[in-house]
Amino acid sequence: MTKNTFYRDLYTQVEALITDESDVIANMANVSALLFEQLTEVNWVGFYRMVNDELVLGPFQGKVACIRIPLGRGVCGTAAIENKVQRIADVHEFDGHIACDASTNSEIVLPLMLNDKVIAVLDIDSMAFNRFDADDQIGLEKLICLFENVMIKHGVIN
């Protein structure tokens, strides 16, 4: 199966899970679980929520994690402050990387927006170096867009 097909199928599954549900935390929990189950070579999948100008651990799958991440620190804090996807082939070369799990070697973090503000980030870690490529990024960006549209549909206010 090609990555395009994989992400198209994954999109359909995420859409079925979250479209009729208005609770953001419940949707984050189900999306985390589905991605953890479906993606290969990942050791952590979850959300960090923006709370009082810092990222706070949200629903996730994997080992215990850092609870709070300051904006601008680590891959997640950088994604949030820059409002830009961070796709890191080797986290050990990322200046300021926060090692919540020392076995993680690569990471992708995608900002989740509402009303032009970052309200959370989706963080996916892998023990493999260079695990995430442009196709992964495109597929995951579509999932984030779907999530944002569902929040808008349900009138979620941040």
Average pLDDT reading: 94
Instruction: Work out the helicity level.
Output: 25-40%
Characterize the main sheet: 6 strands, antiparallel
- The termini sit apart by 38 Å
CATH architecture annotation name = 2-Layer Sandwich
CATH top-level class: Alpha Beta
Spatial sequence of strands, sheet with the most strands: 3-2-1-6-5-4
How many separate domains make up the residues? 1
Corresponding CATH superfamily:
GAF domain
Tally of individual helices: 4
> Looking at the structure, what is the overall shape?
globular
Instruction: Examine the coordinates and then state which fold CATH places here, giving the name of the CATH topology.
Output: Beta-Lactamase
Characterise the protein shown here.
The chain has helices at about 5-20, 25-40, 75-80, 135-155; strands at about 45-50, 55-60, 70, 85-90, 105-115, 115-125. A six-stranded antiparallel sheet has the order 3-2-1-6-5-4, sandwiched between helices. The mean pLDDT is about 95. The longest helix is centred in the last third of the chain and has 20 residues, at about 135-155. It has a single domain (about 5-155), classed as GAF domain (Beta-Lactamase, 2-Layer Sandwich), CATH 3.30.450.40. A hairpin with a 2-residue loop joins strand 1 and strand 2 (about 55-60). Helix content is about 40%, strand content about 25%. It has about 160 residues and is α+β, with helices and mostly antiparallel strands. The protein contains four helices and six strands; from the N terminus they run H-H-E-E-E-H-E-E-E-H.
